[in-house]
Design goal:
heterodimer, A: 426 residues, mainly alpha, B: 153 residues, alpha+beta, two-stranded antiparallel sheet
Chain lengths: 426, 153
């Protein structure tokens, strides 16, 4: 038993490659739990960071610095009355949140958290992710239609129009990255793991490839992905001031929380596409330039150390808490939280663990940057008007995407031809 | 379109500026949110809040001499003072003293009119009640003053 686990863990392949259904099930379980946990963290972080950007404090009462707020929210949502409008189309109304959540979570099948840390490695990985995540809009339209109410219908129509127009720019940007994978090898790949390995083989992240072409494609994708997930400043489908809550106006309780979960899971999914395609996926910074055992050791220590730094920050916060009797419990709670962070940090420093976890760490760190950007956008930008949104999508992003695609093809072809003439390694 | 605005648009200068503003707002410096029940705000000295009838701290006697000036000064006529002369000390003593806070607009004219500093509008501000029942204060309530509710959690 232990032997089998050990032999699998040391083999360094994904469950899909190993053909092991058991390990695939375990991976799916872990990823589902991890994504849910990330959504919980995002909930707290978003409220806190957004509050700080608006010079507020954010949640402070439930637990130290509001750390337990997401759990209180979840409890409240679970015990809330579940209302189904009388005139709603019941079957569709009930299936819509399931569709949205399922599509959001299914995309994580192909996300490569590390060389061996993906459920499976499809040869059409990117295509699969795009296809599944665009299916989410079906759930949104179902929700809007089945509610039999004006605001949800308006919200879902807006959502579908928006998704259709931004999907194209997004696709063009992705094709740029896929084109880049075909350099040197001659054949490109759509596999998520293959794309990251191509970046390693070519010695640079695709965001820096053919500068500024890769960067422009990345920016196009980064804008389109915010629109794709209906987040500020493109949150027209759920524009609070105009449409109450958009497509989920009629939903309450647990079904509403499924929509919430799906929205954040979708954000994580598109961020992981961006990280995989342009930011080198699970690769640590400078895997080729700074290779060698010393650098490998140094970089493998980073995950544990970063957790220790977070723990130190928490302890600093504990010390700086006001010294009054009412804050005693909160102070102890924050201290315990810091201790937990420190323990996680120490655990990640163990030699056996840090070898396997560092891939996941770098991937998650890169995704976290995107998550922060999402919050940052929301704290800064006002919402676009609908015609402006369409204008940005069709008149700006689409031509730029096309242009970058053509230029990438031309520059790539030129490089290949030059390499062929010199007779260098293809 | 001239060149400068175009370049500003292409390089998203204004958006980046806005993002730098929100980023710098995250420091703790500007945050002025008050954690109210935990930290109580200090109101100004001349704030006019819950009324109080002062007593002589040495003897515990009321400072009120039933001169009725406060009742006369009150524009809302919410103060009712009745007293009768004590035949022994030859001084007027309070029989009924009521103050209807529900009608009070905290103008402070009664406080100004008081010749012995007996009536005072204090700096206590937690005066909300669930009904109007407890809003007519009698002498005992006025002399005791308000006990602020302590937040315990």
């Amino acid at each position: 038993m232990l032997n089998a686990i050990e032999s699998y863990l040391s083999s360094g392949v994904t469950p899909g490659e190993a053909g092991s259904q058991l390990w695939a099930a375990i991976y799916i379980l872990v990823i589902t739990l991890g994504v849910s946990l990330a959504v919980i963290c995002m909930n707290w972080l978003e409220r806190k960071i957004l509050a700080h950007m608006q010079i507020r404090l954010g949640p402070m009462r439930v637990g130290p610095h509001g750390l337990l707020q997401p759990f209180a929210d979840a409890l409240k949502l679970l015990i809330k009355e579940d209302i189904i409008p009388t005139n709603a189309d019941k079957l569709v109304f009930l299936t819509a949140p399931v569709v949205v959540t399922m599509t959001a979570f299914t995309t994580f099948l192909v996300v490569p958290f590390g060389r061996a840390h993906a459920v499976t490695d499809m040869n059409i990985g990117v295509l699969y992710m795009l296809g599944i995540s665009s299916l989410g809009v079906l759930g949104i339209i179902m929700a809007g239609w089945a509610s039999n109410s004006n605001y949800p219908l308006m919200g879902s129509l807006r959502s579908s129009a928006q998704m259709v127009s931004y999907e194209i720019a997004m696709g063009l940007a992705i094709v740029c990255a896929v084109l880049m994978t075909s350099l040197q090898t001659g054949t490109g790949t759509l596999s998520m793991i293959g794309i990251v390995e191509a970046q390693q083989a070519q010695g640079m992240w695709f965001i820096f490839k053919f500068f500024p072409l890769g960067f422009i494609a990345f920016v196009v994708f980064a804008i389109a992905m915010v629109a794709e997930t209906n987040r500020a400043p493109f949150d027209l489908p759920e524009a609070e001031s105009e449409l109450v809550a958009g497509f989920h106006t009629e939903y309450s309780g647990f079904r509403w929380s499924l929509f919430f979960l799906a929205e954040y899971a979708a954000m994580l999914a598109v961020s992981s596409i961006a990280v995989t395609l342009w930011l080198g996926g699970w690769l640590r910074p400078f895997p080729n330039a700074l290779s060698g055992p010393a650098w490998t050791l140094a970089f493998s220590l980073v995950p544990g150390l970063s957790f220790l730094v977070m723990a130190a920050g928490t302890f600093l916060g504990t010390i700086r808490m006001p010294k009054i009797a009412q804050m005693r419990v909160q102070m102890i709670g924050l201290g315990v939280f810091g201790a937990l962070l420190g323990l996680v940090g120490l655990f990640l420093l163990l030699p056996g663990v840090r070898e396997r976890v560092q891939d996941v760490y770098w991937f998650v760190a890169k995704v976290a940057v995107f998550m922060y950007l999402y919050i940052w956008y929301r704290g800064t930008f006002p919402r676009y008007r609908f015609d402006q949104l369409m204008k940005v999508g069709w008149k700006v992003l689409l031509p730029i995407g096309l242009g970058v695609l053509i230029l990438t093809a031309v520059v790539g072809l030129r490089q290949e031809l030059l390499a062929a003439m010199v007779g260098g390694p293809r | 379109m001239s060149l400068a605005p175009l370049l500003r648009k292409v390089f998203l200068v204004d958006l980046v500026k806005g993002m730098s503003v929100t980023f710098h707002n995250q420091s703790e410096k500007g945050r002025i949110t008050e954690q109210y029940p935990l930290e109580r705000p200090v109101v100004f000295e001349r704030y006019r809040g819950q009324p109080r009838l002062n007593v002589n701290p040495d003897t515990g006697e009321s400072l009120c001499i039933v001169c009725n000036l406060c009742a006369l000064a009150c524009p809302e006529q919410l103060i009712v003072v009745k007293g009768e002369r004590n035949p022994v000390t030859k001084r007027k003593e309070v029989v009924t003293w009521t103050y209807d806070v529900s009608r009070c607009m905290f103008c402070g004219l009664c406080e100004e009119a008081c010749s012995t500093d007996a009536l005072e509008l204090t700096q206590d501000y937690e005066m909300a009640l669930f009904s109007r029942d407890g809003m007519v204060l009698d002498q005992a309530a006025l002399e005791q003053g308000q006990e602020p509710v302590r937040y315990a959690k």
